[in-house]
């Protein structure tokens, strides 16, 4: 189990003041086994934090590259930390899979996003590579 001091160090390392709400959300992200939606956070945190506060923390985490935002086509943004390190960076993008049956989003950390040559003068800040289909659990 990661300590509050370790979480505070991670936040401070990204230039984020470690408030109680930020520590709670980062702790839940670190425990997550798959990308988490705003509704998931509401359920995980219960009555300890309102939806607007959760959203503000997630937006800050996205701006500071602590998390990246995944658009999986479910009309609900998902948030994810990189499990290969303590937090996500823009350069650490990987493939995701969205199951059309169970609506679960899976993270394929070992599968890098393919290199795409874009025209000169463009500077990408994020990449969203989503594969959609049926997961092994739902195929059974």
UniProtKB/TrEMBL annotation:
Upper taxonomic classification of the species?
Bacteria, Pseudomonadati, Bacteroidota, Bacteroidia, Bacteroidales
User: Signal peptide position in this chain?
Assistant: none
**One Pfam match:** FUR
Annotated protein name in UniProt: Transcriptional repressor
Gene3D superfamilies found in the cross-reference section: Winged helix-like DNA-binding domain superfamily/Winged helix DNA-binding domain
């Amino acid at each position: 189990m990661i300590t509050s001091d370790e979480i505070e160090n991670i936040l401070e390392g990204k230039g984020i003041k470690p408030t109680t709400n930020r520590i709670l959300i980062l702790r839940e992200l670190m425990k997550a086994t798959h990308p988490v939606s705003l509704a998931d956070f509401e359920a995980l945190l219960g009555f300890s934090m309102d939806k607007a506060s959760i959203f503000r923390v997630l937006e800050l985490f996205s701006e500071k590259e602590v998390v990246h935002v995944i658009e999986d086509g479910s009309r609900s943004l998902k948030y994810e930390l990189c499990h290969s390190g303590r937090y996500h960076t823009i350069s650490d993008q990987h493939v995701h899979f969205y199951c059309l049956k169970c609506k679960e989003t899976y993270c394929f950390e070992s599968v890098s996003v393919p290199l795409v040559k874009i025209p000169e003068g463009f500077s990408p800040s994020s990449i969203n590579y989503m594969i959609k289909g049926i997961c092994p659990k739902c195929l059974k």
